[in-house]
Protein backbone atom coordinates (compact mmCIF):
# COMPACT_ATOMS: atom_id res chain seq x y z
CA UNK A 1 0.00 0.00 0.00
CA UNK A 2 1.24 3.49 -0.69
CA UNK A 3 0.55 6.28 1.74
CA UNK A 4 2.21 8.90 -0.40
CA UNK A 5 5.47 8.83 1.48
CA UNK A 6 8.74 8.31 -0.34
CA UNK A 7 10.61 5.04 -0.03
CA UNK A 8 13.64 5.15 2.21
CA UNK A 9 16.49 3.07 0.76
CA UNK A 10 17.65 0.37 3.21
CA UNK A 11 21.12 1.84 3.62
CA UNK A 12 19.69 5.16 4.82
CA UNK A 13 17.19 3.83 7.35
CA UNK A 14 19.47 3.65 10.35
CA UNK A 15 20.71 7.17 9.75
CA UNK A 16 17.19 8.55 9.60
CA UNK A 17 16.12 6.64 12.71
CA UNK A 18 19.18 7.89 14.61
CA UNK A 19 18.40 11.47 13.61
CA UNK A 20 14.82 11.16 14.89
CA UNK A 21 15.76 9.77 18.28
CA UNK A 22 18.70 12.10 18.72
CA UNK A 23 16.34 15.02 18.16
CA UNK A 24 13.53 13.82 20.41
CA UNK A 25 15.56 12.18 23.22
CA UNK A 26 14.79 14.88 25.78
CA UNK A 27 11.11 14.94 24.89
CA UNK A 28 10.76 11.25 24.11
CA UNK A 29 8.90 10.28 27.28
CA UNK A 30 6.28 13.00 26.98
CA UNK A 31 5.88 12.30 23.26
CA UNK A 32 5.19 8.67 24.04
CA UNK A 33 2.39 9.60 26.39
CA UNK A 34 0.87 12.03 23.90
CA UNK A 35 1.11 9.82 20.84
CA UNK A 36 -0.11 6.62 22.44
CA UNK A 37 -2.56 8.47 24.71
CA UNK A 38 -0.84 6.82 27.65
CA UNK A 39 -1.39 3.31 26.28
CA UNK A 40 2.32 2.51 26.05
CA UNK A 41 2.42 2.32 29.86
CA UNK A 42 -0.30 -0.32 29.93
CA UNK A 43 1.38 -2.38 27.20
CA UNK A 44 4.78 -2.17 28.89
CA UNK A 45 3.29 -3.26 32.23
CA UNK A 46 1.66 -6.22 30.47
CA UNK A 47 5.02 -7.14 28.93
CA UNK A 48 6.67 -7.19 32.37
CA UNK A 49 3.87 -9.38 33.79
CA UNK A 50 4.40 -11.81 30.91
CA UNK A 51 8.14 -11.89 31.64
CA UNK A 52 7.58 -12.34 35.36
CA UNK A 53 11.26 -11.68 36.20
CA UNK A 54 12.85 -13.88 38.85
CA UNK A 55 13.53 -12.17 42.16
CA UNK A 56 17.18 -13.23 42.20
CA UNK A 57 20.39 -11.25 42.12
CA UNK A 58 21.83 -13.46 39.36
CA UNK A 59 18.93 -12.85 36.97
CA UNK A 60 20.20 -10.96 33.92
CA UNK A 61 18.12 -9.23 31.29
CA UNK A 62 19.20 -7.49 28.12
CA UNK A 63 16.80 -4.74 27.03
CA UNK A 64 17.64 -3.86 23.43
CA UNK A 65 16.65 -0.54 21.86
CA UNK A 66 16.06 0.29 25.51
CA UNK A 67 16.05 4.06 24.91
CA UNK A 68 15.23 6.00 28.06
CA UNK A 69 14.90 2.86 30.17
CA UNK A 70 11.16 2.24 30.56
CA UNK A 71 11.39 -1.55 30.19
CA UNK A 72 14.60 -2.04 32.16
CA UNK A 73 13.32 0.07 35.08
CA UNK A 74 10.12 -1.93 35.24
CA UNK A 75 12.04 -5.22 35.20
CA UNK A 76 14.35 -4.17 38.00
CA UNK A 77 11.38 -2.97 40.10
CA UNK A 78 9.36 -6.13 39.40
CA UNK A 79 12.30 -8.28 40.53
CA UNK A 80 12.29 -6.51 43.88
CA UNK A 81 15.45 -4.66 42.80
CA UNK A 82 17.30 -7.95 42.49
CA UNK A 83 17.71 -8.36 38.74
CA UNK A 84 20.39 -6.71 36.65
CA UNK A 85 19.31 -5.10 33.38
CA UNK A 86 21.56 -4.01 30.54
CA UNK A 87 20.01 -1.21 28.52
CA UNK A 88 21.41 -1.31 24.98
CA UNK A 89 20.69 1.33 22.38
CA UNK A 90 22.38 2.63 19.26
CA UNK A 91 21.65 6.19 20.33
CA UNK A 92 23.76 7.86 23.01
CA UNK A 93 21.26 10.71 23.47
CA UNK A 94 18.47 8.30 24.41
CA UNK A 95 20.79 6.40 26.78
CA UNK A 96 21.87 9.69 28.36
CA UNK A 97 18.28 10.52 29.27
CA UNK A 98 17.86 6.94 30.54
CA UNK A 99 20.92 7.16 32.79
CA UNK A 100 19.67 10.44 34.30
CA UNK A 101 16.26 8.93 34.97
CA UNK A 102 17.89 5.86 36.56
CA UNK A 103 19.84 8.11 38.96
CA UNK A 104 16.65 9.89 40.02
CA UNK A 105 14.91 6.56 40.62
CA UNK A 106 17.96 5.23 42.52
CA UNK A 107 18.11 2.25 40.19
CA UNK A 108 21.60 2.80 38.77
CA UNK A 109 23.20 -0.04 40.76
CA UNK A 110 21.02 -2.55 38.91
CA UNK A 111 21.60 -1.12 35.45
CA UNK A 112 24.30 -0.96 32.78
CA UNK A 113 23.97 1.29 29.72
CA UNK A 114 25.61 0.14 26.51
CA UNK A 115 25.74 2.00 23.20
CA UNK A 116 25.65 -0.63 20.44
CA UNK A 117 23.73 -1.97 17.46
CA UNK A 118 21.07 -4.68 17.89
CA UNK A 119 22.45 -6.32 14.75
CA UNK A 120 25.84 -6.90 16.39
CA UNK A 121 25.68 -7.37 20.14
CA UNK A 122 28.92 -6.92 22.12
CA UNK A 123 28.23 -9.88 24.44
CA UNK A 124 29.30 -13.50 24.64
CA UNK A 125 26.94 -16.29 23.69
CA UNK A 126 24.69 -17.52 26.49
CA UNK A 127 24.96 -14.38 28.64
CA UNK A 128 21.32 -13.51 29.49
CA UNK A 129 18.20 -15.06 31.02
CA UNK A 130 15.92 -12.83 28.98
CA UNK A 131 16.08 -10.51 25.98
CA UNK A 132 13.45 -7.78 25.70
CA UNK A 133 12.87 -5.22 22.98
CA UNK A 134 9.96 -2.77 23.01
CA UNK A 135 9.02 -0.63 20.02
CA UNK A 136 12.55 -1.03 18.75
CA UNK A 137 12.79 -3.92 16.34
CA UNK A 138 10.91 -2.24 13.53
CA UNK A 139 13.61 0.45 13.50
CA UNK A 140 16.40 -2.07 13.00
CA UNK A 141 17.23 -2.40 9.28
CA UNK A 142 18.11 -6.13 9.41
CA UNK A 143 15.50 -7.72 11.68
CA UNK A 144 16.75 -11.25 10.99
CA UNK A 145 20.26 -10.25 12.14
CA UNK A 146 18.81 -8.78 15.36
CA UNK A 147 16.81 -11.96 16.04
CA UNK A 148 19.79 -14.28 15.53
CA UNK A 149 21.84 -12.09 17.84
CA UNK A 150 19.05 -12.35 20.42
CA UNK A 151 19.19 -16.13 20.12
CA UNK A 152 22.97 -16.19 20.43
CA UNK A 153 23.25 -14.08 23.61
CA UNK A 154 20.46 -15.91 25.47
CA UNK A 155 21.17 -18.82 27.80
CA UNK A 156 19.50 -22.17 27.10
CA UNK A 157 16.04 -21.85 28.63
CA UNK A 158 16.17 -18.09 28.04
CA UNK A 159 13.17 -16.02 26.96
CA UNK A 160 12.68 -13.58 24.10
CA UNK A 161 9.93 -10.95 24.38
CA UNK A 162 9.22 -8.45 21.61
CA UNK A 163 6.67 -5.67 22.04
CA UNK A 164 5.88 -3.89 18.79
CA UNK A 165 3.14 -2.11 16.89
CA UNK A 166 1.26 -4.65 14.84
CA UNK A 167 -1.74 -5.22 12.61
CA UNK A 168 -5.04 -3.90 13.95
CA UNK A 169 -7.66 -6.63 13.67
CA UNK A 170 -10.78 -4.73 14.79
CA UNK A 171 -13.18 -3.11 12.33
CA UNK A 172 -13.50 0.63 12.93
CA UNK A 173 -10.53 0.73 15.28
CA UNK A 174 -8.33 0.31 12.20
CA UNK A 175 -9.90 3.41 10.59
CA UNK A 176 -9.56 5.52 13.70
CA UNK A 177 -6.01 4.31 14.15
CA UNK A 178 -5.08 5.16 10.54
CA UNK A 179 -6.45 8.66 10.91
CA UNK A 180 -4.63 9.11 14.19
CA UNK A 181 -1.28 7.85 13.02
CA UNK A 182 -1.15 9.39 9.55
CA UNK A 183 -2.43 12.81 10.55
CA UNK A 184 -2.12 13.39 14.25
CA UNK A 185 1.27 11.82 14.95
CA UNK A 186 3.26 13.74 12.28
CA UNK A 187 1.44 16.92 13.37
CA UNK A 188 2.39 16.42 17.01
CA UNK A 189 5.93 15.61 15.91
CA UNK A 190 6.04 18.88 14.01
CA UNK A 191 4.57 20.86 16.89
CA UNK A 192 7.01 19.44 19.42
CA UNK A 193 10.22 19.11 17.40
CA UNK A 194 9.55 21.39 14.41
CA UNK A 195 9.73 18.61 11.83
CA UNK A 196 6.95 16.25 10.66
CA UNK A 197 8.89 14.10 8.22
CA UNK A 198 10.77 11.89 10.68
CA UNK A 199 7.46 10.98 12.31
CA UNK A 200 5.95 10.19 8.96
CA UNK A 201 8.84 7.80 8.51
CA UNK A 202 8.20 6.16 11.89
CA UNK A 203 4.50 5.76 11.15
CA UNK A 204 5.37 4.29 7.76
CA UNK A 205 7.74 1.84 9.44
CA UNK A 206 4.79 0.52 11.46
CA UNK A 207 2.90 -0.23 8.23
CA UNK A 208 5.87 -2.00 6.72
CA UNK A 209 6.52 -4.19 9.74
CA UNK A 210 5.36 -7.84 9.30
CA UNK A 211 2.00 -8.73 10.85
CA UNK A 212 1.64 -11.00 13.91
CA UNK A 213 1.81 -14.34 12.03
CA UNK A 214 4.65 -13.32 9.74
CA UNK A 215 6.72 -11.93 12.57
CA UNK A 216 6.15 -15.12 14.59
CA UNK A 217 7.51 -17.05 11.58
CA UNK A 218 10.66 -14.89 11.54
CA UNK A 219 11.22 -15.58 15.24
CA UNK A 220 10.93 -19.34 14.61
CA UNK A 221 13.32 -18.94 11.68
CA UNK A 222 15.91 -17.50 14.10
CA UNK A 223 15.74 -20.76 16.10
CA UNK A 224 13.24 -19.94 18.86
CA UNK A 225 10.74 -22.53 20.15
CA UNK A 226 7.18 -22.26 21.49
CA UNK A 227 6.64 -18.96 19.69
CA UNK A 228 3.35 -17.25 20.56
CA UNK A 229 1.87 -13.77 20.45
CA UNK A 230 -0.74 -11.77 22.33
CA UNK A 231 -2.56 -8.77 20.88
CA UNK A 232 -2.97 -5.62 22.93
CA UNK A 233 -5.71 -3.08 22.18
CA UNK A 234 -7.08 -4.85 19.12
CA UNK A 235 -3.62 -5.49 17.70
CA UNK A 236 -2.34 -1.89 17.81
CA UNK A 237 0.51 -3.54 19.68
CA UNK A 238 1.44 -7.22 20.03
CA UNK A 239 3.75 -9.11 22.36
CA UNK A 240 5.69 -11.98 20.79
CA UNK A 241 7.31 -14.60 22.98
CA UNK A 242 9.85 -17.29 22.18
CA UNK A 243 12.23 -19.59 24.06
CA UNK A 244 15.77 -20.75 23.41
CA UNK A 245 15.42 -24.42 24.28
N1 LIG B 1 12.26 0.63 24.32
C1 LIG B 1 12.03 2.05 24.57
C2 LIG B 1 10.58 2.28 24.88
O1 LIG B 1 9.78 1.36 24.65
O2 LIG B 1 10.23 3.36 25.35
C3 LIG B 1 12.48 2.92 23.38
C4 LIG B 1 11.78 2.66 22.08
S1 LIG B 1 12.15 3.87 20.84
C5 LIG B 1 10.60 3.94 19.97
C6 LIG B 1 13.19 2.99 19.70
C7 LIG B 1 14.65 2.92 20.10
O3 LIG B 1 15.33 2.04 19.20
C8 LIG B 1 15.39 4.25 20.03
O4 LIG B 1 15.95 4.55 21.27
C9 LIG B 1 16.48 3.98 18.98
O5 LIG B 1 17.69 4.68 19.21
C10 LIG B 1 16.66 2.48 19.09
N2 LIG B 1 17.29 1.83 17.93
C11 LIG B 1 17.02 2.06 16.62
N3 LIG B 1 17.79 1.28 15.84
C12 LIG B 1 18.58 0.53 16.68
C13 LIG B 1 19.57 -0.46 16.47
N4 LIG B 1 19.93 -0.85 15.24
N5 LIG B 1 20.15 -1.04 17.54
C14 LIG B 1 19.80 -0.64 18.81
N6 LIG B 1 18.86 0.29 19.06
C15 LIG B 1 18.25 0.88 18.01
Automatic annotation (TrEMBL):
A Pfam family: Ubie_methyltran
SUPFAM superfamilies, per the entry: S-adenosyl-L-methionine-dependent methyltransferases
Signal peptide (from-to): none
Superkingdom field: Bacteria
Keyword Cytoplasm: no
GO molecular function: 2-methoxy-6-polyprenyl-1,4-benzoquinol methyltransferase activity; demethylmenaquinone methyltransferase activity
Record-listed S-adenosyl-L-methionine binding positions: 68, 89, 117-118
Methyltransferase recorded as keyword: yes
Known EC number: 2.1.1.163, 2.1.1.201
Catalytic activity: a 2-demethylmenaquinol + S-adenosyl-L-methionine = a menaquinol + S-adenosyl-L-homocysteine + H(+); a 2-methoxy-6-(all-trans-polyprenyl)benzene-1,4-diol + S-adenosyl-L-methionine = a 5-methoxy-2-methyl-3-(all-trans-polyprenyl)benzene-1,4-diol + S-adenosyl-L-homocysteine + H(+)
The protein's enzyme class: transferase
Sorted UniProt keywords: Menaquinone biosynthesis, Methyltransferase, S-adenosyl-L-methionine, Transferase, Ubiquinone biosynthesis
Record-linked InterPro entries: SAM-dependent_MTases_sf (IPR029063), UbiE/COQ5_MeTrFase (IPR004033), UbiE/COQ5_MeTrFase_CS (IPR023576)
A Gene Ontology biological process term: menaquinone biosynthetic process
Pathway this chain belongs to: Cofactor biosynthesis; ubiquinone biosynthesis; Quinol/quinone metabolism; menaquinone biosynthesis; menaquinol from 1,4-dihydroxy-2-naphthoate: step 2/2
PANTHER family named among the record's database cross-references: 2-METHOXY-6-POLYPRENYL-1,4-BENZOQUINOL METHYLASE, MITOCHONDRIAL (PTHR43591:SF24), METHYLTRANSFERASE (PTHR43591)
Assigned protein family: Belongs to the class I-like SAM-binding methyltransferase superfamily. MenG/UbiE family.
Function: Methyltransferase required for the conversion of demethylmenaquinol (DMKH2) to menaquinol (MKH2) and the conversion of 2-polyprenyl-6-methoxy-1,4-benzoquinol (DDMQH2) to 2-polyprenyl-3-methyl-6-methoxy-1,4-benzoquinol (DMQH2).
HAMAP family: MenG_UbiE_methyltr (MF_01813)
UniProt name for this protein: Ubiquinone/menaquinone biosynthesis C-methyltransferase UbiE
Provenance organism: Rhizobium sophorae
Amino acid sequence: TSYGFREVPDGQKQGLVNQVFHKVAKRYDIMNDVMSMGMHRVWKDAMISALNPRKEAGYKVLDVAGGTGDIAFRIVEASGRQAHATVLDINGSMLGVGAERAEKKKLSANLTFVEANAEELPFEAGSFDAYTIAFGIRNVPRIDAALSEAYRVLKRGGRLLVLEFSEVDMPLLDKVYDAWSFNAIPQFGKAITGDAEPYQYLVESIRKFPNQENFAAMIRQAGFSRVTFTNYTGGIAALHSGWKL
